[in-house]
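Input sequence (412 aa), recorded before submission:
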Amino acid sequence: MSKGLYWLFLQVYHAGLWIAAWFHPKAKAWVEGRRGWRADLRNWRAEHPGQLIWMHCASLGEFEQGRPILEALRATRPDLKLVLTFFSPSGYEQRKDYQSADYITYLPPDGPGRARQWLRELEPAAAIFVKYEFWYYHLQALGRADIPTLLIAASFRPGQVFFRWYGGFFRNMLRHFTHLFVQQPIHQELLRSIGIEAVTVAGDPRVDRVATIAEEQVDFPLIDTFRGEALVWIAGSSWPPDDAILLARAAEHWTEDWKLIIAPHDISDRSVRQLAARLPLPYCRYSQAPDADTLRQSRILILDTMGMLSQIYQYGDAAYIGGGFGAGIHNTLEPAAHGLPVVFGPRYQKFPEAVELIRRGGAQSLRSAGEFHAIWVNWSRPTQRQAASEQVTAYIRDNRGATQRILDGLPG
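Predicted structure, token format:
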């Protein structure tokens, strides 16, 4: 792609969003959320002068990777103004009231004029982009203004456009970054193969966050009563294809030594009722506050609440992470922080932590109910389950410290 083609792509893309805004709520939120951004930012900045760090995230997943950096900056540099931007409405809507940032808004659409205006109003001392946000004109404007620009929690794969013969335009975008903090040594090697040398292997800041959360255990008496003396398999953010695998041999898997907790991705009442109708064993819903007898007699618990899953893993012995039969798996680090061996569907290659957990033997991927049964049999053996758990725990231990390594690389 050339610069001219990129500019043309932006025009078509933005026009498409404006048209879609008439019919699609998410597109409407994208457009409406950016109206008046310049005046809003100018007014806020006039009332909040001083040194400022800007962090940009595509959406919620990237925010979780950047979050430990923001919170560490807030704790160690309370004088700094922290601005957080999102590309996606899904990220902005869920974190627009986040307390560790002083100003939260959408990133203005990419373009030479808007990028220059944004920097004139914002006046950042440094910019931090999380994982894989590459907007040419914003990066170009940062470079021309000589503003230190960092990419953190980055991961790269050999097949990406940066490493293709036709990827020169995208390689040039990478060169606008002052420094790149990548998750694994292979990512550093890939960048060096195309002449990008300002690279540090820092790891994934999410590891620090999930490890801290795991250490701050919160008691959930209902979960403890449900567990009793049984082993517990926890399905986090499961989708219907995941549920089908977990329930294919339910009478064999969840009636004696093991119980199952399902935390569905969609917790709307309709979706949870549909899931419950498929359960062939006694079950209960967490939101209905079942009594102790019901909890003890139930073999399956539906965790139909928000914000609890990361702490519930403390009650588990193994985890199934959903999403691997769709766009990609959900969070594997949360169960890993509690030492749980992890299993997930086949679409995990874009997640370095999942690839590494498999390599170490702390995780497995599957494609069918039959493969899940084989893993269930294997992890029902205490020695096999413990061996996998030790590898997961070692991964978390070996990968802590990314937050501090990135903070050490920030300009003073």
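Checked by second reader. The chain has a mean pLDDT of 94.
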